[in-house]
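Suppose a colleague, Dr. K., hands you the sequence of a protein chain of 240 amino acids and asks what its three-dimensional shape might be. Before reaching for any lab equipment, you can write down a predicted structure in token form. Begin with the sequence itself:
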Amino acid sequence: CGLDNVEALLYLYNLAGQLGIDVISTGGVLAFAMELYERGILTDDDTGGVALTWGNAEAMETVMRQIARREGLGAVLAEGVRRAAQLIGRGAEQYAFHSKGLELTAYDPRGAMGTALGYAVSTRGADFTSVYAIPEYRWDAAQGREVFGSEKAVDRLSIEGKGALVKRTMIVSAILDSLGLCKVPILSVVGDFSLENEASLASALSGWPLTAADLLTIGERILNVERLFNLRHGATRADD
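The predicted structure, expressed as tokens, is then:
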């Protein structure tokens, strides 16, 4: 949203939690509204006189409170960028960045092909916690070749090998979610996508002799069930 005031940023981040609205989707929908305001698609009549200019923390706070209460423009923006764009019309759809209706995380996936692909095919949409494509940032060429069959798979600017990378990271994310484990220390800090430690943990908890290969199979089944759920409710491969 063009906000460079750290104190204001922290205040608005905390406010989102107090209002019970998701900070990532809120940031996405605010940026969407600001883009429309800058381009004249939204006017002062639409905003109720709120100047939705980039970096305007006061305007952001006003609209966030409107979103939480579904008042004024907030009643439209509370629907998220996909639905809001449909309601606003006037070409707003081309500025509504989302995947399956979920707004993108703040970092730009154009600089990370694995993340971009993950956003496109994730069963939840543009959800970084479902993908966690850390290997394209952290792993060396030898690891990429060994695990994904391509050194380029761990080059964030290359599209080669990203299918294998995204599949593995989505499966691992599903397993960690199922075990109730935080992904930050395991995937972001350590960068371990082997599931060896998780297999030992799951075996100790369940009494079943589970291997890392078993968990990879289970994780794939989880993703397949999620995919089938989406299909039942109208989200097909055309939405990827």
